[in-house]
Amino acid sequence: MTPAPAGRAFDALLCDLDNVIRFYDTAPLAALERAAGLPEGTTTDIGYAPEIDLPLLLGRITPDAWVESIAAGLTERVGTERAHELGRALADAPFRADEEVVSLLRRARTHVPLVLVTNATLQLDSDLALLGLTDLADAVVSSAVERVAKPDPAIYRIAAERAGVPVERCLFVDDRQENIDAAAALGMATVLYREPDDLRRALGPCAGEAAGDAAVAVQRAGREP
Q: pTM higher than 0.85, yes or no?
């Protein structure tokens, strides 16, 4: 590992997966919803409701059982067969990795440990293999394996331990404000992710920028993004 630049604000990088590294193509699902006379996003609203989604993310149910739960919420509106079709389309939505973000993370990992911290299903290992990212991080902390999900403080502590650094020396990247707030409350530096430049600025020299030009854009507890 290359020595990190002096004055760096963190000694480990903890990064979310979905909507930072991995992005889903929901266009096929949207087309099915339109054909069924449903507003776009109806299926995801049901599927990602905490009472439906959390059991999956904690490893308590299978993806097939999750699809059944989604279908149950749609059956009265579109009938049993179409409800299952919509649930399955959400579960099987194609996904891709943002190569710009992947490149930034790989560069950062030459300076500091990288840990993925994700609310994910028990399929995560196979998903990372499909993305070609099994070697991206030093460790992966999955809610379905640990049986605890963001924004529970326990999952951040697990991730910091896997990185081998104190929580207050971690930089945490996520696209959800509640997850950012939980990390900041533990003393982590944080980045509310919206686009690759957010990550690039936060990583500063660890992203390959000149030390004099890099601005470390982080939040600490009590600071706005």
A: yes
